[in-house]
Amino acid sequence: MANYSFVLAESLSFGTILAVIAVIAIIVVLFVIFSFFNTWLKALLAGAPVGMITLLAMRLRGVPYGKIVEARITAVKAGLNLTIEDLEKHYLAEGALLQTIQALIAANKARMNMTWEDATRIDLATKGTGKTVLEAVRTSINPKVIDCPAGKATIDAVAKDGIQVKVKARVTVRTNLDKFVGGAQEETIIARVGEGIVTTIGSSESYKYVLENPDRISKVVLDRGLDSGTAYEILSIDIADIDVGDNIGAKLQEAQAIANKNMAQAQAEIRRAAAVALEQEMKAKIQDMKAKVVEAEAQVPLALAESLKSGNMGFMDYYKMQNIQSDTRMRDSIAGVKPNNNPQK
Q1: Which of 32, 151, 157, 259 has the fewest CB atoms within 10 Å around its CB?
Q2: Does 228 fall in a domain?
Q3: d(C-alpha 61, C-alpha 55), whole Å
Q4: Whose CA is closest to 210, among 156, 248, 148, 170?
């Protein structure tokens, strides 16, 4: 009897443990159900059902299941067949989930051939660039206008006659979704259009021709295929404003003339300095020659003394020479000639 009571007690204890475990399990299940019930019911009523296990798995992975379910409801209501796995993958890749879905919806409404993979690829490519996939799709549907130039008032170019022409253009572009990833952005379009305008004006014979035919700028620039390798397709280039600037050619000629004058003055100064130097050199040579003459004249008395001493010349010869010199000086005095042979004024 005692053994039977012991067995019965053990059975009751084991049954109590199982009952407690069952109650805890039921409480946990009820807690999970109540935690996800609103989200699960919202998805079910919206026609985009999501299983409780899937919600629990997202919760364990740290994914905001409420945001994923909201995105799926938006996609299903728009007729997009996107799975929870597709949305979760894009979220985990740090993509803009809601904007990507809105972009895909806009593309489908516009009957554009765009898939979920294309939308996610463009969204991830625009991350950190300040642009969004939704903006890219909207620009593809509704072309946007870009002012050229972007940083200053006008594009300034000079025609062959030297007259400056100032131009302001507006470029209408549409997003090329096939080349959006890896394609050049608006800055490249603006730079290429500006280069084309400068080239077209620079090749014109006269500024008058540019003013008379502003559409020629648009035609020439469009024919160059400036949208090659970019994320946009250029639809049109319109000249918004065109005006005449300064006479750059005249200013350049004036500056060149001033430069030539300064160069000529510098060369003339060089020649003048050379002439002054040559004059001083000639004066120095004259003084040198005078010194040599004085030196030679100083040798004459010595030579006469040597001749008298050696007997080569007599005293009578010396006196005759002195008389001849006196007569010569007298004649010069009567004729009015100075000793240096310059006529007296």
Answers
A1: 151
A2: yes
A3: 10
A4: 156
Examine the pLDDT at 12 and tell me if it is beyond 60.
no
CA-closest candidate to residue 122, choices 144, 142, 138, 143: 138
Cβ–Cβ under 8 Å, residues 84 and 68: yes
State the CB neighbour count (10 A cutoff) for residue 345: 4
Rounded to two decimals, what is the model's pTM?
A: 0.58
What range does the domain containing 63 cover? 2-140
Mean pLDDT of 51-67: 81
Residues 6+ apart with CB under 8 A from 71: 82, 87, 97, 98, 101
Q: Residue 248 corresponds to which amino acid?
A: I
Pair 84, 172 in one domain: no
The one-letter amino acid at 81: N
Whose CA is closest to 155, among 170, 146, 165? 165
Please report whether residue 331 resides in a domain.
Answer: no
Tokens 């040198």 appear where? 288
Catalogue the E-assigned strands of the chain. 144-148, 155-158, 163-175, 232-247
- Hey, is 174 helix, strand or coil? strand
Q: pLDDT at residue 186 above 50?
A: yes
Asked if residue 91 lies in contact with residue 63, where contact means CB atoms within 8 angstroms, the answer is: yes
Amino acid at residue number 150: A
Q: Is residue 30 in a domain? A: yes
